[in-house]
Amino acid sequence: MNNTVEDVTIRRPHAEHRNRDNWEIDQGLIADYHKDFTPPPLPNTLSRVDEIDFITDAERRLLSQIQSRTYLNMFALIEGLSHSSLNGTNTHDARLTATSSSGAADSEYRQSFQQTKRAIEAGMPVGYRFSADVHAFQSIISKLSDWSVLAFSYHIGLTTQAHYKQSAPCDADISLSLTAVILNHWRDTSRHAIQRGIEWGREDAIQSVADRDQAVDDLVLIFRSLDEILQAQAEADLAYFLSVSDRAFGHARSQRILGATLAAYRWQFIFIGLGNPRYVNTLMGFLNEAQYQRISDALGSISDRGTLH
User: Fold this and answer.
1) Residue 12 main-chain phi, psi, to 5 deg
2) Could you tell me if 94 and 86 are in contact, meaning their C-beta atoms sit under 8 angstroms apart?
3) Is pLDDT at 38 greater than 80 in this prediction?
4) How many angstroms separate the CA atoms of 54 and 52, rounded?
5) Contacts for 46-54 with beta carbons within 8 Å, 24 or more apart?
6) How high is the mean pLDDT of the chain?
């Protein structure tokens, strides 16, 4: 297949919305956030804590704050793995794509990410744990096809774009500093997503039918492995939430909180990107009907929201 994805890549922000190439976060926002840790760090459209009807507003803020820590940790994990996996490829263009993420703008962005993480950590009780086995996930990704890793990287770019669109209508319930992080994250990632999307199209053009069949299985494995990480983290975050809460919830309600948290994580890191028409159209252009259906069925087994349309 000779499809390319130049026509479905993420657009850069308009010039009037960026004054410089180094998209840094206003340090005043970080400082203000450090002083007043009251608003939930993530917008409700991402955290979905407002769907839990039996917890108080203070408990919703706490759960959303916990989600913000996982949000930052998950993106650090995902982006680091996709970059390092492509760095090990034998494809010259893919190596250039992977290493192009370095530079001053990327450094500023990483620094702001870490600053916000530290601000969140300073305002919360001890005991939070990020449970992902980074080395195990790295071992899985490093053995997979370039096609699948590029497909996943493009998915990350569309995911961050969707996160910004969901958090852009700022209101009193959304942390301005987290919104700034999401904005800068999208701006940073969109540059790489354009490159990854083009390279994904080039990689697809050289695939045989058998190669593409294997690549589909590899992509499914990436999303299933990611879902296993999200399941384990939802369990860890529930344990932390229960340990620092002022009251006991009982087994039934604890399981409802767990289910809502896992659903939010799956939405944030899997389905919000997969539901993007650009991603769906690109997959449909690259794959035959049987291959496309295999991906849709596999995602449907994770959640009824996972079916591609």
Assistant:
1) -70, 155
2) yes
3) no
4) 6
5) 46/71, 46/163, 46/166, 46/167, 46/264, 46/267, 46/268, 47/264, 48/260, 48/263, 48/264, 48/267, 49/260, 49/264, 51/260, 52/256, 52/257, 52/260, 54/253, 54/256
6) 75
Query: How far apart, in whole angstroms, are the C-alpha atoms of residue 107 and residue 119?
Result: 18
Range in 18-22, 28-32, 248-252 the model is least confident about: 18-22
Half-sphere exposure of residue 116, counting CA atoms within 13 Å on the CB side? 30
Q: How confident is the model at residue 116 (pLDDT cuts 50, 70, 90)?
A: confident
Dist. CA 1–CA 283, nearest whole Å: 11
**Window from 35-49, 128-142, 265-279 with minimum mean pLDDT:** 35-49
Place of tokens 């009037």: 16
Residue of 273, 166, 264 lying closest to 219 (CA atoms): 273
Model pTM score: 0.78
